[in-house]
Amino acid sequence: MSDLNIGIIVGSTRPGRIGHFVGDWVKANAAAPGVNFEVVDLHDYKLPLLEEMFPMGAGNYAGAAANAWAHKIAEFDGYIFVTGEYNHSIPAALKNALDYVKFEWQNKAAGIVSYGSMGGVRAGEHLRQVLGELSVADVHQHVMFSIFTDFTGFGTADVEFTPAEIHKAELDAQVSELVSWAGALRQVRELAADEQVAA
Predict the structure, then answer these.
(1) What is the domain extent for residue 43?
(2) CA–CA dist 130, 9 (Å, integer)
(3) How far is residue 140's CA from residue 103's CA, in Å, rounded to a whole number?
(4) What is the C-alpha end-to-end distance of the chain, expressed in Å?
(5) Quick check: 182 and 105 in contact, CB under 8 A?
(6) How far apart are CA 45 and CA 7, in angstroms?
(7) Which residues contact 134 (CB under 8 A, 6 or more apart)?
(8) Does the pLDDT of residue 71 top 80, yes or no?
(9) Quick one: CA torsion of 108, 113, 117, 118, rounded to 10 degrees?
(10) Over pLDDT 90: what percentage of the chain?
(11) Per the structure, how many domains does the chain have?
């Protein structure tokens, strides 16, 4: 079986964001045999506020930005979502990106890494609801960073990400769960594709 591909999706695009620090940390610390990890920064995709007809068409969207996003999402067997907590929920940019495509998400697995005043726990819970509707299986282990204890200089131009050591073990546990689920769900997708060809 070929390597699994896991996308680390950085879900904030606002000026002064700190999510890219967390995404880079995940990339530097996530490891598993036979698994490739890639940071996917929403800031690079410039998705407009949802401008696609319903229902969405897999791999055949109207806008160039939508097609670029869809093709990137389709490359992965699973995802680690890096999300801040904005007003007790996920960033608008992340919700928009999730809504932009549909079939490319289905029967994949995901882990959640969040940050905020309470570790981003409420954003994580909202994200789980959205992922469930998209047929993305989210794993139990949730990695949460506090803006008070895992960052220094938060709210200034000199902010630094200084995560506590315990978070590495949490990420290891998440990656272990995610790889198992992503591998199993890839088999589900392959079986469904084979059945479609035979029909």
Answers:
(1) 4-198
(2) 15
(3) 23
(4) 25
(5) no
(6) 14
(7) 98, 102, 105, 106
(8) yes
(9) 70
(10) 85
(11) 1
Other beta carbons within 10 angstroms of residue 106's beta carbon come to 15
Q: pLDDT grade, residue 155 (50/70/90)? A: confident
Instruction: Write down the pLDDT at residue 64.
Output: 92
Retrieve residue 72's tokens. Answer: 């990137």
Give residue 180's region: left, alpha or beta (phi > 0; psi -120 to 50).
Answer: alpha
CB 3 within 8 A of CB 35: yes
pLDDT tens-digit series, residues 4-55 = 999 999 999 999 999 999 999 999 999 999 999 999 999 999 999 998 887 6
Question: Following DSSP, what letter does each residue of 112-126 receive, concatenated?
Answer: EEEEETTTTHHHHHH
Which pLDDT does position 197 carry in this prediction?
A: 75
Looking up residue 132, the CATH number of its domain turns out to be 3.40.50.360
